[in-house]
Each structure stands twice: as structure tokens, then as C-alpha cells.
Specification:
This protein folds into four domains: about 1-45, no CATH class; about 115-315, no CATH class; about 350-525, Orthogonal Bundle (Tetracycline Repressor, domain 2), CATH 1.10.357; about 540-655, no CATH class. The protein has 24 helices and no strands. By secondary structure, it is mainly α. The radius of gyration is 49 Å and the shape is flat.
């Protein structure tokens, strides 16, 4: 671009000045002349130059004035055109409304519902297209016409729908549908009327309307009409002075609702749902809507009765149990969605929920008293124990009690409600532990032949069950919500358990309870172990006081026999081990025999070897007593009993006899 300008400038100079460009003086004159011309041009362009006879700004303003006038002229013309176009469209809409109104009136009089529905759909389409139009008057006219014909068509179609339902003997009570199949023309008419009702109800925006109906339990017209005769029957039987309306028999109306769902489910699936699918309303489930409508009957009835039921504990408890059973049956047998409202909403109302929790606590404590009141049978092992856990009657009954409480509340939708029930269970577990402590402390004398071993079994079994429960999805969810509400990390590990009978597990809602139960179990194991050792030490005094230095040496080891003074000690060891094995769960017994072996190893080492000067005869005799009599007592529990008497075995082997 710059090269072109230079070439053009050179050509212009050559054309205007010719040979003068060869004279330096003339070039200077030409240069000064061009500079003056440039300055003159710049001064004219400078808007601040007041000496300029015709300012540039005045020229521009004059031009703008001319343009503005022209623009105003055309704006006025365009506005008039726009008003005319809008008026034309407005008139067209009014004419269209008048046309649809006339057409609907004519087709309605002739009972041609198919054309009525088609025309009404066109009317709805106009309303939909103009719903954002900023014209209050026109919008009111359109909505008014639409509502007018919607009410007329819905009323007429509903009347025809109800008549058709009667012709097929709807509702199906006492299995009347299975006795006689309705004529096909009645079924076809019902399907057609269902289609018409859905079209006039959902033609504005089917997806929004369907979503609204499912979230607020506003039923579609066909479902509403099919439920009406069942609602009348329900009110007739379960309200007022009828014998079927009994406060203490909520199962009657719950069962009736479930029966109606069962009896009508197949018909809805076979004949009505295909109509919905044909229209493309894929989010509308007629079977579910039908269940929602019937469940609402149960909700209303429960809400009406629960206040009166609270005055009688038995009636209230029975009502809650039946409501929970009804809800569970709906969810399991009929896939009733958790997000849908149900009878649980009534049970979790503040006043009702407080009463429910209170009743659960009351009945649980009474049951706990009954479980532990039969002092002899309570700690007897179950006959069905296959894992040799020595599960006691009271442990099984109490854990069953807790499990039933869990079954009742685990389906509650709100975690806050479930956490309140969990706190109740934790309180009951702690109360049960305190009662076991009281029973254990009341035992006197020989703890091995008392309830102490069975109490240890009870604790151990409950620990194992609680560990399993803590890993279930239900309790993991509760631990998450509990940790979140208490602002603690859910990743902390459970403290080590020193006896290795229970594997280290991640923390759960039962962590604190498990620690307390574990401490008590270990205390009882320690108590039993100490009792046996005290008895062994008492029976071993004569054996300890033997004059081991004067014992004769018998070169034939096989000719030796048990030291007579050791008989009572070994008899006690054998007896107590047998009793403990018989009364304790396998894993608890494994802990206690290993503990006794270690204590025996320490005791005999200190009393017979560390504090004695043994000669060859005494060493040989002691070795015989240990290897041929003590080790066999423990060989039934392990293949290598000597591994649990390392001090004794090592000391005797060092003697090289």
C-alpha cells in the first residue's frame, strides 16, 4: 500500500512541476508551498479553529438534521405498518377463536368427541403460542374460551366414561370381572374415552402436567374417575357407624386397599396403560396413579384415626404395626416408589412420632424385663446353635427385639427420624449391658459354675451381631448422617481389640457400644481365669513344697509316674478346662485356655525352677510331670501344647537330662 502511495506521489509531482524538480531552489519553493497547503487543510479540519469560515461541525449538524427528519418520517410509517400488522393478527386470532368456538359447539351438539378433542387441541395450541404475549385482555379471552370448553368436554366425557365403567361392572369387587368378560365394544369405548380425557387434560404441556400429577398426587382424569366408586365404597364401610369402622382394626381398611390394588392391576396394565403409551405420555404410569389414589384413602383414614388411637397404648401400637406392614407390602409387592407419599407421613408427624418412640421404648423395656426375669432359662443355650457360639436365650431374644425395631423404622424416608430410633436402640443396648453387670455381680462363690460363663457368651454373641449390623447399608447410611450431624470423620478406625476374637472393623454406629461390651466380656474372662488360677495355686502347694533336690534318679524315663502331690492340681486343671469348654463359646474358650496356659507357665516356672535348686532326679521328675501329664491336658485344644509353655520347656531342655 505504501509503495503505491509513493509511486502516485512521484507521478503527481512530475506532472505538476516537471523539470523544476531538477532545480534545488525551485524544489525548496515547492516544498514550502506544499507545507503551507497542508497547514491550511489541517486548520480547516480542526473543529476548534474559530477562524474557519465554515466549520466541519456545522456541516455535520446540518446533515444530521436532515437525516433525523427523514428518520422520524419513516419511523412513523413503520409504526403504523406494525400497528396494522398486529391489528391484523389480533383480528385473525379473534376470528380463529370464534371459528373454533362455533366448530366446537356444532361438533359437541352432534356428539362427535373426536373432532371436539381435535379442535380443542388447536385451541390449546393457540393459547400455548401466545402465553408470553403481553396482552392481558387477549390472554384472558383465550384462557376463558379454553376453560369454558375444557369444563364442558371434561364433564361430558367424564359422564360417558363413568357409564362405560358401569357397563363393565367397575369396580371389580368380589372378583366379578373374572366371572364375565365385558364386551369388546365396551372396552374399546373405554379406551377411546380414556384417550379423549387425556388429550384435553394434557394438551397444553403433557410432560409438565404429568410431572405435576406425580409429584403432588393430582390424578389424571381417567384415574380419578376410576377411583371415585372405590372412594365411595371406602367411605361407606370405614367411616360412620358401620361395623367395619373399628378403631382397633386398622388392618381391615389396609387390607381392603391392597385387595383393590391387586384386583385392578391387571386390567389397568392390559387396557388403560397402552392408551397412555400410544399418546406418547411416557412419564404417566396409570397403575402407579391408581395406587397413589387408593393409598391416599388409607392416609386420610389413618390421619383421622391416629389421634383417637393415641389414648390407648395397645390400639396405638397395633395401628402403627399395621401401617408399617401396609407400607412394606406396597413397596415390596407392588413396587410403590419411596418418593411417593404414604402412611409413613402420618406416623412421622411430630406428635405421633413422639408417641411412637415412647411406645417403642416402653414395650422394649417390658420385653427386656421378661427376657431376664426367668433367671434360669434366660442364660440357657439355644438348641439351634450350629456355630457353637453358645447363644443364650436372652441374647437371641434381645437381638431379635432390636431387629424388629429396625425393621419397623428402616423404611422411614427422613434420616433424622431413623437416627432417633437408632439412639433408642443404643440406649436399650446400654441398659441391657448394665443389667448383665448387675446379674454378674450378684453371682457368688464358684464363678465357673455360675451364670458368668453364659453372660460372657451373651456379650460375645451380641458383639458379633452388632459388628455384622454395622456393615449393613442401613447402618452405614445412619453412620454417615450421624457423623455429618456431629461433625466427625467417618473414616476413623475402631481401636484394637486385644484378644483378636473380633476383627478390627471400620467405625460404625455401634463403636462405643462394642467397646463397652468388649470391656465387660474381657473382665468376665479375666475373672474366670483368675478364679481357676487361684484354685490351681491352692491345690498345688504340696506339690510346690516337694523336696526336689532329694528325688532319686531313674534312668528309665518310662518307669516314672506322676508325682502324687500333683494329682489334686492336675485334677483341678482338667476339671475346670472341661467345664469351661462345655459352657463357653469356642472362641471365648480358646482365649481362656491360652491365658491359663500362659499363667501356668509363669507360675510353675517361678515356683519350681526359678526359686528351687533342682538336682537331676527332681529335674527328671518335673519334666515327666510336665510332658506326660500337663501337656496332654491341653493337647485336645492344640496340636502343639508345648508351644504355650515356653519357659518351662526351655528351662527343662537346658538341663540336658
Amino acid at each position: 500500500m505504501m509503495n503505491n502511495i509513493k509511486i502516485k506521489s512521484f507521478e503527481n509531482l512530475q506532472l505538476n512541476f516537471g523539470n523544476d524538480l531538477l532545480d534545488s531552489k525551485k524544489c525548496k519553493l515547492i516544498y514550502h508551498s506544499l507545507i503551507q497547503k497542508k497547514q491550511s487543510l489541517l486548520s480547516k479540519l480542526n473543529v476548534r479553529n474559530i477562524d474557519c469560515p465554515i466549520e466541519v461541525t456545522e456541516l455535520i449538524e446540518n446533515d444530521l438534521d436532515g437525516i433525523y427528519g427523514t428518520r422520524r418520517k419513516y419511523e412513523d410509517l413503520l409504526h403504523k405498518v406494525n400497528v396494522l400488522q398486529i391489528t391484523k393478527q389480533y383480528i385473525r386470532v379473534i376470528q380463529k377463536l370464534e371459528y373454533f368456538n362455533v366448530e366446537l359447539e356444532r361438533e359437541y351438539k352432534s356428539k362427535d368427541y373426536e373432532k371436539c378433542v381435535t379442535i380443542f387441541a388447536n385451541l390449546c395450541e393457540i393459547n400455548w403460542n401466545l402465553k408470553y404475549l403481553d396482552n392481558f385482555y387477549l390472554n384472558n379471552i383465550i384462557c376463558g374460551v379454553q376453560k369454558y370448553w375444557h369444563d364442558i368436554l371434561k364433564s361430558s366425557l367424564s359422564e360417558s366414561f363413568e357409564e362405560t365403567l358401569k357397563s363393565i361392572k367397575w369396580p371389580f369387587v368380589n372378583a366379578n370381572f373374572s366371572l364375565q368378560t365385558p364386551p369388546q365394544n365396551a372396552i374399546d369405548g373405554l379406551k377411546l374415552l380414556t384417550e379423549y380425557l387425556l388429550q384435553i387434560e394434557l394438551s397444553n404441556d403433557p410432560f409438565d402436567s404429568i410431572a405435576l400429577s406425580m409429584s403432588t398426587s393430582c390424578l389424571s382424569a381417567p384415574t380419578f374417575l376410576m377411583i371415585q366408586p372405590l372412594r365411595k365404597r371406602f367411605i361407606y364401610h370405614f367411616y360412620g357407624p358401620r361395623q367395619t369402622n373399628r378403631l382397633d382394626k386398622p388392618e381391615w381398611y389396609f387390607t381392603q386397599i391392597l385387595t383393590w390394588i391387586r384386583d385392578h392391576k391387571e386390567f389397568l396394565h392390559k387396557w388403560i396403560q397402552p392408551v397412555v403409551d400410544k399418546l406418547g405420555y411416557c412419564h404417566l404410569d396409570i397403575e402407579l396413579e391408581f395406587m397413589v389414589g387408593l393409598v391416599q384413602l388409607a392416609v386420610e383414614k389413618l390421619h383421622a384415626d391416629i389421634g383417637k388411637a393415641q389414648y390407648d397404648d395397645f390400639t396405638f401400637s397395633h395401628t402403627v404395626d399395621e401401617a408399617l406392614s401396609f407400607d412394606k407390602e406396597l413397596r415390596i409387592s407392588y413396587d410403590y416408589p419411596v418418593i411417593q407419599a404414604g402412611v409413613l407421613g402420618v406416623l412421622t408427624q411430630a406428635q405421633v412420632f413422639i408417641k411412637w418412640i415412647s411406645m417403642e421404648r416402653k414395650f422394649a423395656l417390658e420385653k427386656m424385663d421378661n427376657i431376664l426375669s426367668s433367671s434360669e432359662l434366660a442364660f440357657e443355650p439355644l438348641d439351634s446353635d450350629i456355630d457353637n457360639l453358645k447363644v443364650t436365650v436372652c441374647a437371641d431374644a434381645f437381638m431379635t427385639l432390636l431387629k424388629r425395631i429396625t425393621d419397623r423404622y428402616e423404611s422411614l424416608p427422613q434420616p433424622g427420624h431413623r437416627l432417633q430410633f437408632l439412639e433408642l436402640q443404643l440406649e436399650l443396648l446400654d441398659d441391657f449391658r448394665v443389667r448383665l453387670i448387675q446379674i454378674a455381680k450378684a453371682e457368688e462363690g464358684n464363678v465357673i459354675e455360675s451364670k458368668v460363663p453364659m453372660i460372657a457368651n451373651t456379650l460375645f454373641y451380641m458383639e458379633n451381631v452388632l459388628l455384622d449390623w454395622g456393615n449393613t447399608l442401613h447402618h452405614l447410611n445412619l453412620y454417615y448422617y450421624k457423623s455429618k450431624s456431629e461433625n466427625i470423620s467417618p473414616t476413623v478406625l475402631l481401636p484394637d481389640i486385644d484378644d483378636s476374637t473380633l476383627e478390627n472393623e471400620a467405625q460404625s454406629v455401634f463403636t462405643e457400644t462394642l467397646l463397652l461390651y468388649g470391656d465387660m466380656r474381657r473382665f468376665l474372662i479375666s475373672t474366670m481365669s483368675e478364679f481357676v488360677m487361684e484354685e490351681i495355686e491352692s491345690k498345688s502347694q504340696n506339690y510346690i513344697r516337694e523336696d526336689w533336690s532329694k528325688m532319686k534318679v531313674d534312668k528309665d524315663f518310662k518307669n516314672l509316674s506322676l508325682t502324687p502331690s500333683a494329682c489334686s492340681m492336675f485334677e483341678v486343671i482338667a476339671k475346670r478346662l472341661h467345664q469351661l469348654q462345655k459352657s463357653l463359646a469356642d472362641k471365648i474358650f480358646s482365649i481362656i485356655w491360652k491365658s491359663l496356659a500362659q499363667q501356668l507357665d509363669n507360675y510353675l516356672f517361678e515356683e519350681l525352677i526359678w526359686n528351687k535348686k533342682l538336682e537331676k532326679g527332681g529335674i527328671l521328675q518335673l519334666r515327666y510331670d510336665i510332658e506326660r501329664n500337663l501337656f496332654p491336658l491341653f493337647s485336645q485344644f492344640t496340636d502343639k501344647p508345648e508351644g504355650h509353655f515356653k519357659q518351662l520347656l526351655g528351662s527343662l531342655q537346658t538341663c540336658n537330662i
